[in-house]
Amino acid sequence: MRAVVIKIGGFAFPEQPDAAFLRELAAVLRRLADEGYRLAVVAGGGRWARLLIRAGRELGASEALCDELAIRASRLNATLLALALGLPDPLNVPADVPSLVRELAADKPVIALGGLQPGQSTDAVAVLTAELMGASLVVKATDVDGIYTADPREVPDARKLDRLTYREALELLAGKAVRAGTYELLDPLALRLAERSRIAIRVVDGRDPENIYRAVKGEPIGTLVEA
After folding, report:
1. Across 154-178, average pLDDT
2. DSSP string, 161-173
3. Pairwise CA distance, residues 98 & 139, whole Å
4. pTM, full prediction
5. b/e string for 171-195 if b means 16 or more Cβ within 10 A?
6. Measured distance CA(162)–CA(223) in Å, rounded
7. What is the pLDDT of residues 58-112, one digit of tens each?
8. Residue 51: HSE in the Cβ half-sphere, 13 Å Cα cutoff
9. Residue 103: CB partners within 8 Å, gap ≥ 6?
């Protein structure tokens, strides 16, 4: 059974959750599971996490505590995903690496999780999970259709990149701030983890869930980051 990790970005978890979209997303994930893929689905924190971080900072919280606020938001989002997927125990979201390992050891076809520990984005969680599962691919579903030379929402002539090496992606992110809630399309820790285990990351536009299916099936969409 081929293992794949799917990272669902914060776009899927607005302040007013869209149950219809989550059902559409879950239908694609269940189809992959029915076709024999073993899936770990990682939920991002979304705007709710960023709002909690902002409030935490205003109240004097450390970056580690702000990370913890975001982690709790991502676990709530993971619970919503588990509900949409029809998982038998939607409240059983792994809270740390030992509990994640236990979930993986149970050999379930699909597990849902959010953040694990401060200082680690959900991108990094996705790659770490891929290492633990022996997966060679992480599909990151976001609200743009790949990685660009600059933010296409701010720079109209930014150019989409079809493929990057891990080192090229790290160079693209060089000098960016790494604080709670400010990770770019990929954060440096996730890239370094992917590099050490040669795990490919494909960034796709998840606003159409079928793009996730296409990416898992090997279609050359979005941006591929690999060795």
Report:
1. 83
2. ESEEEHHHHHHHH
3. 23
4. 0.92
5. ebbeeeeeebbebbbbbbbbbebbb
6. 5
7. 999 999 999 999 999 999 999 999 999 999 999 999 999 999 999 999 989 999 9
8. 8
9. 92, 94, 111, 113
